[in-house]
Amino acid sequence: MDIVNEVLQKAAREAEKFKPITVEKHLEVEFDVGNLLAFDTNELDTRKLRSATNDYLRDLTRDNTQLLLNKVWELPTKRVDEAIVAELPKPSYLIPRSLPVPKPKEPTKWERFAKEKGIVKNKKAKLLWDETLKKWIPRYGYKRAAAEEQKDWLIELPGNADPMEDQFAKKKKIKDEKVAKNELQRMRNIAKARKIKIPRVGMLSTDRPSTKDLHKAATVAKVSTASVGKFQQSLPKEKPARDVKSLMPVAPAAKRKKPNLTPQQERKSNIDIIDKILNKKPKIDLEAAVNREMHYQDSERSEEKKSQKPKAGRGGKKRSAGAGGGKKGKGKFGGGGGGKPGKASGKPAGKPAGKVRAHGGAGKKGGGGRKRR
Amino acid sequence: MPVLQRIKKPTTHKGKKVLLSKEPQVIENTKQTFLLKGRKTGGIINDCLKDFFSLKKPDAVMLSQKNDILPFEDASFLEQSGKKRDANLFIFGSHTKKRPNNLIIGRLYDYQLLDMVELGVENFTSMIEFKNEKVGLGLKPCLVFNGDLWSQHHEYQRLKNLLVDLFHRETASAVRLQGIEHVIAFTAVEGKIYMKSYRILLKKSGQRTPRIELEEIGPSAEMKLRRTKLASDDLLKTACKQPKELKIKKKKNVTKDNLGTTHGRIHVPKQKIDKLQTRKMKGLKKTSAERKEDRAALKKRRAEQEASGISTKRLRSQS
């Protein structure tokens, strides 16, 4: 027991040498170790503060700093270049940013279209082999331009072009216009991304305006007054030009545009068209078919009759009283043949009854069809 | 209708990089501070600005010219110079009869004024007057806020945020333990703010954590809150918004226990219960006839396999 007491006493003596690192607080101090912050919300001793301001504040701050650093020393440490560093947690006390959170870049019109259509950008080689120059030239850039100049030192006159026309100037103009168009589109994309309304372009000047252009310009000019053309007089038989809606001072109604088809939709519609063509089946109009058949048989019969007429004439001569028999026949069968009594009079009485009956039935049907039409 | 100004594309790579660096970033640079003087400044304010500048170095610029401006009436000059210098914090010192020894601390968000607080300085003692060793340049200080006023009063809450923004330097992922040697303390009591700055002395404590002692190095000041121009709660909220990229996504199926061991839950396929070896019993034993049948079936299967194997081999050799 003596040994234990001795050791304990020794430890106590050792501890006495050092000042404590613990601090007693009525309310717990809040920390944000990530920012090395300490917020002490305890009430201050105003009497002490007044009597010995500096000492009181130093002691108070010392206590709070001790608490904060106790926390820091608890953090996981590592060695970096012979110095011990404590890894700080993420700060919890929020401080405002200096600029807003970056937004994702707005896609251009082409990018939007390409995404809808599933068009993927594929990488192209930077150098291209030129057959005439027999060397590799870049796809774009100043070296490409130099190579082009070297290549096109002469331009062949195309077809029936004016021989006095400067082909080089023409080529340059085309290029300049392409550049200008690209620039316009770039600006339009920027305007759209920044949600700026762009003013309408209006009438563009051309070297040689056509009649249509002039008519358009006149129509637009007429309404471009303070009173939107209300008091402008018009010529007799004057009509406003067409396709000027977008140029008019009154804002045009929002354009309705069909959304682009997605690749799947486009594929489906194309396949549908092919299917329609390949699986084409003749449409059967039953009634029309029957009518045609009837007509065919009728005409056949009439043909037959025509071809038999000379024979019938002979037959008729044999039996002149055949007409009376015909009348009787009409009453008996009520056939289609009966519809034409004049003709029936020439009918051979000696014809097989079955055939006549069959024709008669068909004739009735056909008659009904005709009525419906 | 506003006419869109032509936006020129940068012609050089360097120019492009400069423009890109001016755009909002996910992880921002340390906020820069600019200190400037008003129409008239007294000795106290001059010393004060100097000391603040030395506390803020190297993330600060001191503008030497006098400026005939009144920030609480028109802050546009501060916004402009903030944009010009890409600085978001400002300290403006002035001295008038109405507001002697006036110090305006403020910050910008998106180059627009966010917060602005006016402080009247009394009992100022500059750093030079404390004849002792100072702290190293650019060290991250500890900030201590004493008093319940900092959490109770709206204006003080904002001022606390502003002071943290002004003095915390930069967010660091790690800090050198021997490099923590500066404390700035703000004590708010009875309408007064005491600002004190101390050097930390690390003493032995017989444990790993050292005993802290403080030595005042200045500046020390008593300040009084005067006018304020604070941002609306909405604006402050948008200004404090953190980008999505910085938010930590929770890792699924990974846990840590109290001993600090990491546990991961992995996919375990369904157990085949029908093939599980359970307790052997006489009643479930196969009879001799069944066993014979099984053996015959096995033999047959093997023979078939062999035959097919030979046939495939032959085919291969032929081809």
From TrEMBL, chain A:
TM region(s), chain numbering: none
Biased composition, class Low complexity, residue ranges: 342-355
Keyword Nucleus applies: yes
Xref: Pfam families: RRS1
Biased composition (Basic residues): 308-320
GO cellular component, as recorded: nucleolus; preribosome, large subunit precursor
Swiss-Prot/TrEMBL GO biological process terms: endonucleolytic cleavage in ITS1 to separate SSU-rRNA from 5.8S rRNA and LSU-rRNA from tricistronic rRNA transcript (SSU-rRNA, 5.8S rRNA, LSU-rRNA); ribosomal large subunit biogenesis
This protein's UniProt keywords: Nucleus, Ribosome biogenesis
Localization of this protein: Nucleus
Compositional bias segments (type: Gly residues): 322-341
InterPro entries given in the database record: Ribosom_reg
Residue stretches of biased makeup (Basic and acidic residues): 236-245, 265-307
Region (Disordered): 229-373
Keyword Nucleus annotated: yes
Role according to the record: Involved in ribosomal large subunit assembly.
Protein family per UniProt: Belongs to the RRS1 family.
Name recorded for this polypeptide: Ribosome biogenesis regulatory protein
Organism name: Frankliniella occidentalis (Western flower thrips)
UniProtKB/TrEMBL annotation, chain B:
GO terms under cellular component: nucleolus
TM stretches of this protein: none
Family, per entry: Belongs to the RPF2 family.
Matching Pfam families: Brix
Location, primary (coarse class): nucleus
InterPro entries reported for this sequence: Brix (IPR007109), Rpf2 (IPR039770)
GO BP term (any one): maturation of LSU-rRNA from tricistronic rRNA transcript (SSU-rRNA, 5.8S rRNA, LSU-rRNA)
Annotated protein name in UniProt: Ribosome production factor 2 homolog
Region: Disordered, residue numbers: 271-319
Domain Brix residue range list: 31-234
Molecular function as annotated in GO: rRNA binding
Organism ancestry: Eukaryota, Metazoa, Ecdysozoa, Arthropoda, Hexapoda
Compositional bias per record (Basic and acidic residues), positions renumbered to this chain: 287-297
Cellular location(s): Nucleus, Nucleolus
Protein keywords: Nucleus
